[in-house]
Amino acid sequence: MNTASIRRDYEALAQVLDDMAKSAELSDADQLAQCQARHDEIMARIRAHDVHLADIPEHEQLAQTIRRSIDTIKRFAPKIKAMQDELIGEASTARMHRKVAQSYR
Q: Could you give the percent of the chain with pLDDT greater than 90?
């Protein structure tokens, strides 16, 4: 794999982390879930090759962008946790209603 494609993967990682931070800031759980799926795909590609971020020209700029996005995500971690808890609660409530409805059948 050439360094250009690896650089694109790291640039995509930086972008998806930035998108995750924005989704968290906006409390957009659906968008956050989509970002998480893209993140997982990108990380799988990055892990599949032997070249690391430090091996890429201008890696420091990419590393700064990634660090900045991670810091933003960390800042919104309580908000992300609250969204996860809310979604889990909604799913539990929906299951409970479904079970009650089935018991009346």
A: 17
What sign has the CA pseudo-torsion 75, 43, 14, 24? negative
3-state secondary structure of 54: helix
Q: Where are the alpha helices (DSSP H) in the chain?
A: 3-25, 29-48, 59-75, 77-103
pLDDT 10s digits, 53-85: 788 877 888 889 889 888 988 888 888 888 888
Which tokens in the block code for residue 22?
Answer: 């924005």
Q: Could you count the other beta carbons within 10 Å of the beta carbon of residue 21?
A: 22
Candidates 65, 57, 70; CA nearest to 21 is 70
